Amino acid sequence: MHQHPVICFGEVLWDVLPAGAEPGGAPMNVTYHLHKHGLQTALITSIGNDEAGQKIKSLFADRGICTDYFFTDAQQQTGIVYAHANANNDMTYDIVKPVAWDFIPYTEQLAGLVSNASYFVYGSLAARSEVSRYSLLALLNAARTKVLDINLRAPHYNEQALLPLLQQADILKMNEEELELVGGWFAGNQERKDLVRSLSEALNIATIIVTLGAKGALLFMNDQFYEHSGYKVQVADTIGSGDSFLAGFLSQLIKGTSPEDALDYASRLGALIATKKGGCPEYSIEEIKSVH
Prior knowledge:
The chain has about 290 residues and is an alpha/beta fold. Helix content is about 40%, strand content about 25%. The longest helix has 16 residues, at about 260-275. It is globular, with a radius of gyration of 18 Å.
């Protein structure tokens, strides 16, 4: 078993966009961007025994990303999402169910893999189904530092299923709408920073990241707030921008970068990915540094 500092868990799928189909899924995007930063990472997921699944697996394998933990489900199709953009370039999603990633199995080998990793990145979407939710909760018991990239897509979540995922998190990333929704469950209607602090105290989460779209991002870490106003770019689409932001932030955290610099780097990467089509575009580290 190889040593991977970061293990991701969850969905891989095809985003069917007006311009065509792109591979995606938040855990897949995070894994891809971590790998782009030279981190040995692996994704635990499930694909169908179909061409769509093999294409995603090949996309990873061709780039040297570990696919050892891609399970194949002969009964289910590979994940598919129909994505629609509104006039503001915000995306809405029609997420097909059930699909292969609803049936990610649990094994002792996976628990060993996760327990050896420094970070375990998971989302809330894969917890919509009983099988994957059971596997995720079992793996969380084995994990060290747990990173929840919450991904609320109505109607694929409920408070009862989300609560154990939140309670396990050491690092929580969410967008503005998700903060208001989840914060409202615990703290009612408050100003943004008060809501973040209340959430941190209620759930015992030391690090909370709130992405604010074009308005930048807010980081709560070491009992301090750090703010970034973001970078103004020409947006191609916003798919994968938040996922790349998280990957960029984690890559800097692993390097021991300061919170301010990690937030700036993540903001640069998120902005760069928004200028490109799809969640897993080609780019160089030099391009990230050139964002201003």
